[in-house]
User: Fold this.
Amino acid sequence: MIPVITIDGPTASGKGTVAARVAEALGFYYLDSGALYRLTAYASLKAELDLADEDAIEAVAKALAPEFKGGRIVLDGEDVTDKIRMEAVGVAASKVAALPRVRSQLVQLQKRSRQAPGLVADGRDMGSVIFPDAPLKVFLTASAEARAQRRFNQLKEKGITANITTLTQDLQERDRRDMERAVCPLAPAAGAKILDSSNLTVEETVAQVLTWYKECLAA
Ligand code: CDP
Assistant:
């Protein structure tokens, strides 16, 4: 059985950074499941589709054939690596992610990433739905203030100015939409270990996940 470590949690909790570093430390593959929702959203926005039109967005998800090459993401010949990180695409992603048939279309693509020697998968439902048999499930959280501050710093590094109050509000709105949706709402999976990283550095957070994984192997 190929091991999987799932890292789920709310927006800007640091899941992506932590998951990528844990994968690197263990020599495992890394699945950024949010990127698939972002790609679906990006392609749908580009085609000027109504984001509530489940038939249309399902067709986009079904046809999705992204290429992941050396840290870049190419969709239909276009390098979309940076474009899908835009806040507007994130907001659109959380809308298309609420459509049950869109989620179903993306299941196989996610399961296919489970390859030897192992996988670290980050998202919202990695531990609860996609890899329920994962030996280690982590639910990574942080206070809304800490997450808004991190997003602010991230944007600042990219030279984008932002407002902390607006960022906090956006974050809380996205949390609400992710937690209240009918399908796969954001919640810790059964058996998940909760890790609050509000007062932890990335290194400390990664170290904690690796310690849990060692304990899990020894058990
Ligand atoms: O970086 P951030 O946490 O803001 O977003 P992301 O992980 O890239 O995911 C973007 C959106 O996709 C989220 O707001 C979720 O609504 C959705 N998503 C999901 O529903 N299930 C997943 N496994 C991953 C993302």
The chain has a mean pLDDT of 94. The CA atoms of residues 94 and 177 lie 7 Å apart.
